[in-house]
Write the structure tokens for this entry.
Amino acid sequence: MNEADFIAALRHLPLHPGARNLEDDAAVLEVGGETLVITHDVMVEGVHFLPKQDMADVGWKLAAVNLSDLAAKGAQPVGVLLGHALGDGDERFLHGLGEALRTYDAPLLGGDTVSSPSPRSFGLTAIGKAVHTPVPSRTGAQIGDALWVTGTLGAAMLGFEALQGGREDNASAYSMPRPLLAEGCELAPHVTAMMDVSDGLLLDAFRMAEASEVSIAIESAACPVADPARRMECLTWGDDYQLLFALPAGVEPPVAATRIGQVEPRGFAPLFVDGEPVTNREGLGYVHK
Amino acid sequence: MNEADFIAALRHLPLHPGARNLEDDAAVLEVGGETLVITHDVMVEGVHFLPKQDMADVGWKLAAVNLSDLAAKGAQPVGVLLGHALGDGDERFLHGLGEALRTYDAPLLGGDTVSSPSPRSFGLTAIGKAVHTPVPSRTGAQIGDALWVTGTLGAAMLGFEALQGGREDNASAYSMPRPLLAEGCELAPHVTAMMDVSDGLLLDAFRMAEASEVSIAIESAACPVADPARRMECLTWGDDYQLLFALPAGVEPPVAATRIGQVEPRGFAPLFVDGEPVTNREGLGYVHK
């Protein structure tokens, strides 16, 4: 099955009320008066990382992408579980993973180690505590909101190209992404919708619009990009892990961010880029086949 | 790295206090006055299931092995997250997974879907609520305790052989194991130590002895086996997902179980089988290389 069909089929399984939109970054679990946020992301050799890549970066990134999902929910890390395929570079993997867990105060809870031929897969489950309820999701964008994004888009793309070209010193935006946990927690009480930009700004904005049943209009010239000469590439490349969020008109974000568009009544398409409608996801970013 | 070295290296990472013994079946997380139990197990094509196997059985088993870890902790399922490599047989996989989730009231919370070449990996994180604290672990066996096991050992072995021989009707003990959730919850208030038998009775008893810093003496003739003519094979084959537990002398278990041995002061070896010391894990059961 492709991803869309699979997720559609998942909706026929018994679903927890905290699963909400299954395409959301993380689930929400109410326990004893606390609100937990829980997410699980997988990285596959040759798909999500290069076989020749330093395994320390893979360990770091596995933690970072999951912690970024917590950031998008305004949650502070509680702990992680690791699903690990044993093999070459395990020392380096643990070094990078450990660095990320120390940096973001996300201690190891447990997990599983398995034997596996190539390609190896690594999974991580991250659990956090929400600092604010209701927990932000991608479904809440309201007509009239302004759309904002943190940081610079396309930095991971340039980092990937540097890595491909052997310039590893310039690759950190790709190989060691920084989950914006502090920013996510500061933003959570203010936003109507929030998600992390993992698969490309335009694709993720498209998803927010679909989930919120609105249209989102983006001005490409307003978007902060790492290479203005390749603006559309920067907006369709993933892996930046910036936060994309909607705020009521007139509300200034409590963290550094750029206003890039607005939320409108659902029109002909979920997404408009410079006034042009975008009716399907093809070409917008990274879609799992 | 091999599994033992990897787990040793994990101990240098920041550890959550609930991680306890990292080799334990699941971690314990105190949240808002509740005690959660959380576990993550991975299944790899060609390692944990046969490529020709019905994917419905793989989906069922992925849920069952994780829920069995909750059973060993005396926890009731709250929800699960799925890490899924898309591919052939996904409809069947979801059918089997859905059956297990319905049967054991373990609704889907979320997860991740990825593209992956063969061999595919599937991971599941299961979260439960402990019915009793302190939560049982494999570390608590006390000198003088009796050692007990539920059910029959070696049934999964016969099921595996039936599957290999094309007799799928007789394979259910291997292909559709039943996590003993009700039994685990009934046992939790009484046991000093408990674990599920996933890798073979002798290996898992060896692990309980090591974790509890005692010796365990097992009488092989007392062990309930599916094929008495192949008793030692039944005691070293895994996948039965019975519960192995220690009870103070004189305490009768509240569920059907067989007394198979006793807990003794730590002697020359962690495990004695019919009086013979067993000093290392080789040959006792399934060890991940």
User: Anything to note?
Assistant: Chain A touches chain B through 70 residues (CB under 8 Å).
